[in-house]
RNA sequence: GCACGGGUAGCUCAGUGGUAGAGCGGCUGUUUUACACGCAGUUGGUCAGGGGUUCGAAUCCCUUCCCGUGUACCA
């Protein structure tokens, strides 16, 4: 009956061969392909494109596992699914990567040695060879993306969209070029957007410096600053107009130290009277706020820093050419020598740091391209009205706040790798135009500049802008620029977006605006913000801390399914995930459990015949729990509660199915068992496994697919891989049974399991846990038939269960009151009266406490009067049960004395 | 400073007003034919502290403390 091969199935599940096999199979069969002509309801997700330089980290695993679960579940629900993958050209990261390669050459080279055209070619070559490793890694995780539609943010079609969007926004007057204070990265030599600057707490020093009065060099004004190296660029000292200490100095002048010159004392509201000395040096070229003050007062702008952060001030030879931080030290020394340093104190402030290079940002006056965001109002309303839902919902507040205080977006970068700005200057006036303080649509209308999707027809007359666009200026088009018209008409707007809350401003909000402006509406209906994966100390995972596990290593050791399952089990909604490898091991253990439960079925051989009657209460019980599981999974996934879903799947299978049901039916399958009974049990097992594999498949796609095939379900039901099989309906599971049939069966099964537990407890307390020769005796209170009695013996590890209404136990026989009735464990000569007495008195202690607590509650008049009657009844019932148990124990106790 | 999230068993976390839970870990026993990646038993909690509402609070309100995140200012 049992094929030999099945007996020889390995005892442990090995995911390595299985996972790759199915990944290949699914792809070859085109299982992931999305058909825009399908009549089915559309379900779509665009993958947040990882950097093309990226390698898979735990954040990606979390993110993409969730997307895969959603996509696979949607397929089971009969939807046409598009999960669109791709990578981002990641301007700065990729350029830096290739520059690093160049610097390793002998002799070292820079991009300037290569020249722009050649350098860009080198980056493309690097991308073709090394880029997109992460795509291969995502395949190993089992991601069911439509890989044929993989996109890159610099694909030709995509680039056309970028140019088109730029051109339209420019023509609309939303894009302009201007001389503005920007965040300058002195290491990468490019401007950055506000979002790319991270305010970092920093241990600084506050220096108080003496600025001598012009009229009397023996008197001075004290000015506090953290940046003495910029003194040479000071053009004024400002005080608050309401500050009485300085009112008599207004209009007078002080001598600027280091690079001596008289500068005026001015009054500006911005200065805080209470801070420092109440006098602020004004350095318009090197501070955002000072720049504004400078504009208000028409002050000169003196720039004394080079783009790479060195001092450019020949008038001050001691500092000229020094790096800004070296210059800070040096300038303090010079001031001290001149006795102009009043004091120096420790000071904690926040310093803006480049997200990309970690270098402190330099506020710098620079010619850049800016965008006034389109469709801000629509974007705001889409979320506040609920057309787009955020989960967890509180992120909507962060989003709204950002939109309320939105600033123009600096979109130009001084990079070579990226979308080059589609603006050309007329060659006759290119030089002047590049210096012009503002350029906009008017200049295009006048023919001074050309802006367009295509280069101008007479290229010889034009010079293209040197700058590239911020990478996010292409990413924000991702949900629609990745699709052709046909695809868009079926799959846009997308259904779900799954991403990290850290890019809510960089990406999510900008996509919403772009969607409204360029694609006719919202880009997605739901946004699920994943948690951030942290280590057990709660720290962010990072390369430098070395606390970031390599997902591929985890896949190698625990399987992709194990990794996915383990991670989903600990992924809460709304907070951080603390990553613990133990949990991934649990995922692997669970896969093994599932495998062995299926292996057990395979060892029973042949298919069960269909249909089979529901046989005993425990069969009905497990089917009813399975039906509940269907609802739990649907409910949890509907609310994006992946941990709850995984937990429900785990506990059903391990506890309800394996530990209780399977253990209780083993005798049904033994040789010599009644064939009808055997068939009923096999049929129930097959039903449970078939439904269960389908429910689990989105989370553990490989092992479920493998078992689906090896259990023969593929051949038997749809002859399709599990991943293309519709989710079986739970409605037929208990057909023909009434509500009361079911609840009776469940109560009966619960009583059996509870009684088996009590029996095991008794055995353990008498050190008989492993002894299978004991007998159990039940004095029944509920109808206890032979079937139930046999199952009880099996579950409790006993030789048999005797059901006897008029049983009189020998003195000192261990006993317990169970839902089935009085349970005895006759010891047949092994009676230990003292042990039993001790056990009873321990029990009594516990129960007496419960009785006291319950009694006190019921004695409380206001409880009885005010609590709902069900609650009171429940409490009374509880008390009655405890008292009954106590009576039982007391009887036993007196029998012993 | 402001806003948001969190603090429950040694660890990771469930638990939206009615007997405090799960998994892991610890301890004890166990190689029994699906599974030692297992099985059975067991240990373990002032639900951060204080106050309030309520017959009843981990849960609702106020407050303090701690951790995390975002954001503003910072000479």
Description:
By secondary structure, the chain is of the alpha/beta class. 45% of the residues lie in helices and 16% in strands. The protein has 30 helices and 30 strands. Strands 7, 8, 9, 10, 11, 12 and 13 form a 7-stranded mixed β-sheet that branches. β10 (253-255) and β11 form a beta hairpin. α3 (58-76) crosses α19 (551-570), α21 crosses α26 and α23 (675-696) packs antiparallel against α24 (701-710). Residues 1-6 have low confidence and may be disordered. It binds one RNA strand of 75 nucleotides through β8, β12, β13, α12 and β26.
What radius of gyration results from the CA coordinates? Answer: 38 Å
Work out the helix count: 30
Q: How many beta-strand runs? A: 30
Largest sheet: 7 strands, mixed
Q: Stretches where pLDDT falls below 50 for ≥5 residues? A: 1-6
The assigned structural class equals alpha/beta
Instruction: Estimate the helix proportion, in percent.
Output: 40-55%
Mean pLDDT: 88
Euclidean distance between termini CA atoms: 57 Å
Q: Beta-sheet strand percentage?
A: 15-25%
Shape: elongated
